[in-house]
Amino acid sequence: MALFINASAFNHSCVANTYWNLVGDVLVVRARTPIKKGKEVYISRSYLLAASRDPEMHDLTLEPHFPKSGCPCAFCASLRRDGPDVIQERIRLDEELGYVETEFSKRVLEHHDLQTLNRLGKQHSTLLKQLQATWRDDNTQPRPVLAHHYAFATRILLTVDPGRGIVDKGNMSELVYRLLQATGAEFYLTPDRLYFTTAPLCASYWLGVGLTAIAVYYADQGTKEGDRQAVGFLTLVADLSRLEHGDDTERWWRRDGARLVRYERFKEHVFKGLSSAVRA
Fold first, then answer.
1. Which Gene3D superfamilies does the protein's record reference (predicted)?
2. In terms of residue numbers, what domain contains 37?
């Protein structure tokens, strides 16, 4: 982490290697990926979700910095390659998914029958696959439009029996990986759990929601393997909070405690897991 009183000379990148926020006149900059000595520190002056939904407005926002040909970063270049027709189809599917998610949440509150929730869940899954298909397989840039919808799919896991075909155990891992990749996070896998090598670039709140939902799903299985998986995912959420906010584990637990009050038994194991992540 670094503090800058005069930070006007920072160059912009939509896929910046830092997080930043202002505290009075002081710019607080936190690395989201290891930055080697001599490498430039970038900050982002735009929001990737807004850029994905309205590339023209995004270009206008950045015009003072890139007056001739637009932002040269890989994310903006991928938007220009996609073209307006693909962007419009993406926006349409994003809106349809939002409608289904609103309906699903409403029906849950109204305690509707499982058949109705099952139908909405399958509709969500179909639309999500269509939205996902609007990106080429070789496009490795963050997909902020997708991140919220992947996170909502984890909520469906908690609401509807996975055995009824919404999201079964077979594609649970794929859902986790797609959620992580959509946010721009990079990670590696050990036999015990996932570790961040690069913190997410966008939608970190929804990433935390989705990972917590999956942890709860495993915790509620009431098995040793389920508990092991739950600890792994909760440790990843705690690690995310540490990277983004500089939290210690107690502060993270207090912030998320309302969602985790039933899972106090995991707290000590999560703290140990996060300690090993910091040492790594």
1. SET domain
2. 2-45
24, 117: one domain: no
- On whether both 97 and 137 belong to a single domain, the answer is yes
pLDDT in tens, 71-96: 888 888 888 888 889 999 999 999 99
> Residues with Cβ < 8 Å from 35, sequence gap 6 or more?
17, 18, 41
Q: Flag whether the pTM goes above 0.85.
A: no
Let me know whether 201 and 173 are in one domain. Answer: no
Give domain status of residue 74, yes or no: no
Please give the helix or strand (H or E) that residue 30 lies within, else none: strand 26-31
Structure tokens belonging to residue 40? 């430039």
Beta carbons within 10 angstroms of residue 81's beta carbon: 10
pLDDT tens, 120-163?
988 999 999 999 999 987 778 889 889 889 888 878 877 765 44
My answer on whether 166 and 226 are in the same domain is: no
Mean pLDDT over residues 7-14, rounded? 75
* Domains of the chain: total: 3
Residues 174 and 246 in one domain: no
Length of the chain: 280
Is residue 75 situated within a structural domain?
no
d(CA 105, CA 162): 17
* Count of C-beta atoms within a 10 Å radius of residue 83: 10
